[in-house]
Give the backbone structure.
Amino acid sequence: MSELQRVLVLGGGIGGQVAATRLKQKLGRDARVTLVERSESFVFAPSLLWLMVGKRKPPTISRDYSAFSRRGIEVVHATVTAIDTAASAVETETGRLEYDYLVVALGAALDPDRIPGPAEHTHHPYDLASAERLRDTLAGFEGGHVTVAIASLPYKCPAAPYETAMLIDGYLRERGIRGKTRIALYTPEPLPLPVAGPVAGHSVAAELARRDISFHPRSQLEGVEPGALRIGGETLAHDLAVVIPPHRPPDVVARSGLGGPGGWIAVDRSTLRARPGNVYSIGDNTAIPLENGMMLPKAGVFAHGEAEVVAENIARRITGDLREEAFDGHGTCFLEAGRGKAGLASGNFFASPAPEVSMHRPGRSWHAAKIAFEQYWLRRWL
Ligand SMILES: Cc1cc2nc3c(=O)[nH]c(=O)nc-3n(C[C@H](O)[C@H](O)[C@H](O)COP(=O)(O)OP(=O)(O)OC[C@H]3O[C@@H](n4cnc5c(N)ncnc54)[C@H](O)[C@@H]3O)c2cc1C
């Protein structure tokens, strides 16, 4: 190897953490690995749902990035403002960074203002500040009508809105006010987790029914008013609205020229390589079509698996090994069901003609496993 290779990882979320760590482990002093992340602190998103119902505090689910510096990874806290693949360079608020290999892992941006009507009239648990606001509102809630609505597709973590409804159900039962509350869930989807197929969808719908959460599929949110949501031409009053906001590709991704369907980055689904060939992209900022015409869900489990493959393939290219690992589309996800139980969805999302996903009904062991996974993530990667 003639000179030190520069590998730039954009985004220090789930995918970027794994990619940067593995690259440094595999390449050691043979490469300079730089992680660019705008935030000083990482929040483990799955735990926001527990925080929403008072079961976590922000410090227990947040970490700074000092572990990456200790691993020999250069951490740059700056916002990426431009990706110039022609020049193999990235512009940030604090300067220009050149690369030999680039991994783009900038996630999906929330776009709450896309819903007509003031977004302040609704809540969501999709970022720390919003989850804390929802937690405080729930703590003061004394009963009434709770509406959970999915504004549009795609959104992060296909299970999270369903988990949100079931956790709110469990929380209100613990507080003894579930009898005074109606919970309804509206989604444009035909079934919960449609990408996982009808068996998975019907099993989640049955869990909602078991908890007396009314489920309204194929329902499009059209607007938000104080105290009411307009859905499918009707105005539906509520006392508390939880609206999963629309998502969009980060602006810098949309402007990068890497954009594929909907502005998300188009990649080879096996190698996660974008065009040009020294650029890879993983996680929520990609769009990966599946055999059934749907897209691979935006979920941490896939960002993680893709990061492992990309790190291996970049390390092989740098060390002159031309073989390539392939991402196989397998993923497993816990579904928190409230009151100390969780289910599990697991399968091969690249299967043909459609993903093959098995579901395990909610139980205490999956809930314990979900907690163990949270602890593993926060200790292993940060
Ligand atoms: C409430 C909730 C629950 C979830 N539960 C689960 C679950 O149980 N299982 C699961 O698999 N997934 C779950 N997810 C989804 C999971 O968190 C995401 O799919 C995963 O984090 C995607 O990883 P990523 O690396 O692609 O993006 P992210 O983890 O979102 O990381 C992107 C990073 O890029 C940074 N960034 C963005 N733009 C810029 C810029 N211009 N400059 C510099 N930095 C920038 C961001 O600050 C962020 O740190 C959940 C998500 C939510 C919101």
In short: The chain has a mean pLDDT of 96. Residues 316 and 322 are 7 Å apart (CA to CA).
